[in-house]
Sequence to fold (516 residues):
Amino acid sequence: MERIVYMDNAATTPVDSAVLDEMKPFFTEQFANPMTYAHSSPGDVAHVAVEEARVRVASLIGSKPEQVMFTSGGTESDNWVLKGTVERASRERLHKPGHLVTAEFEHHAILHSALALQRQGYDVTFVKVGHSGIVDPDDVRRAMRPTTALVSIMHANNEIGTIQPVADIARIAHEHGALMHTDAVQTTAHVPVDVDTLGVDFLSVSAHKFNGPKGVGILFVRDQAALYPFIDGGGQEWGLRGSTHNVPGIVGLGKAAQLGKERLPRELERLTMLRDMLLTKLSAQIDGIVVNGDMKQRVPQNLNIRIEGIDNEPLLLAMNEAGIIAAGGSACNALETLASHVLTSIGCDLKEAKSSLRLSLGYATTTEDVNYAIDVIPGLVKFLRSMA
Amino acid sequence: MDKYSRATIREFMSPSNIGYIDDPSGMGHIADNADAVELTFFISVDAGHITDAKYRIAGCTALISTLSVLSKELPGKTIDEALVLDMSYLSGLLDGLPESKWRCAGYAVQALHLAIEDYQSKGEATAG
Fold:
C-alpha cells in the first residue's frame, strides 16, 4: 500500500480504535434514548453511558460534571457562548446592546458569530495580534467597556498553535465585570487545560481533534444562568441544549477524553521532540524557512513555517503526491484562494502567507513519519524552486 | 468541486519547457505579489512562426500546468494562431481547470501576449 504520512492533525484526527470499540454498541443494541432512563432499562444504560462520558470530560478539563454541556462540536459551542451570553447580558443586565471583545485571528466559528452579533446591533472589538501570534492582555484591557459582556480569546490558535495568556486575560475580563470564554479546541488533551487555572467561565472542546469522533464537543458552562439556550428544544442538558443526545458520539468523546488525559504527559514530551526535530532538520536542508508565530508558547503538535519563494498550493499538492498530507491555512478554508487571515493578522504579507505550511502531528504520528517528511519535503521545495 | 484533474497534476509534476531562451525574439514578465506570482515567458520566432517557448515560474499549480501545455502548443504556430489560444482551450488540454483557478492560470496567456508585444515592438523598431 502507498505510504500516507498524515500531518494535518489540527484539521482532524483518526478515531482511536479503543474509542470506536466503546462507541459501537450504542449504534446498535444499546440504541435507547437516554432521556427515557426513569422508566426504561435500555434508556438507563444509555443515560449511564452519557453521564460517565460527562465525568470523563470533566476530569480532563478540571470542571464539575454538571458544568459540561454536550454539543455538536466546537463551532456550535462557540456560536452558543457568544450569542447566548451577549444577548442575555444585554437584555437582562445592561438593558442596552452589549459588547464583545475577541481577537482578529480567532477561528471563523468565533469571527463569524461575532459578525452575526454585530449585524444585530451588538458591539464587537477585534483585538489585533502581533508578530508573535500572542494577544497582549493590555490590548484586551484597553478594549474593555462598561458594556462588555464577554471576552473570547482562543487558548491556542488553530493555524500557528500559539498559546494565549488566557488566565491573565480572564482576570482583566472579570475586573471589568465581563465573562471569559476560550476556544480550547486545539489545546484540550494536548496541553494541560484546567478551567480553574485558566479562570474561564466558558470553554469549547471538540472531540475529533483528539482522536474522538466528529460531530460532538462540549461547552463548559460555569454558571448556567449566564447564557440563553442556543438550540431550543427538549429538556436535554438542563434544558439549555435541546436535541436527542448523540450517544455514540458522546461515549466516544468520553473515551477520547479519558485516553487523552492518560496520554497527555508523554505525548506532550514526544510530540514536542518530534516537532522540534522536524523544524531543525527541515531548516538544515531548506534555505529561507521562517517560523510563523512564537515557537516557545505553542502547542506541541504544531509547526507553521513559511518557505521563501514557495507557493504553498503546489507544494501541498506535490507533498500529497508523495503521500504527505498537510495544510496551508486551516482546513475550514482550504478552498479559499485568499491568504490566511491568521497569518495576515500577525503581520505576514500576502506572499508570505501563501508560502506558509502547517504541519500538525498527532497521537498516530511516528518517528518514521517525521523522518519521511524530512527526507521528502526538501526535494519538493527544490523542485518548485528550480522552476523560478 | 474545486479539484484538479489528474491531467493537471501530472502536467504540474513534470512540466515541459521550463528554462530560458538566450536572446529571445520576445519576452513577457509578470510579477504579482498578492497572487505570489513571478513569471517570465520567452519565445523564439523565425519566418513568422514560433519555434520555441520557455518560461520561469513561481506560482500556483494551475499556472504551472497551463504554462506547460501552452509552451507545447506554440512551436509551429504563427503569431495570429498563438493569439487565438485562450483559457478555455488550454483548460481543455488539462481536462478542465477549476473555474476558481482560471484567473491565476490566465497569467500564462497574459505573459505570452506580453512576449508577442515585445517581439512585435522590436519588429517595428527594426522596420522604423
Notes: Chain A has a mean pLDDT of 96.
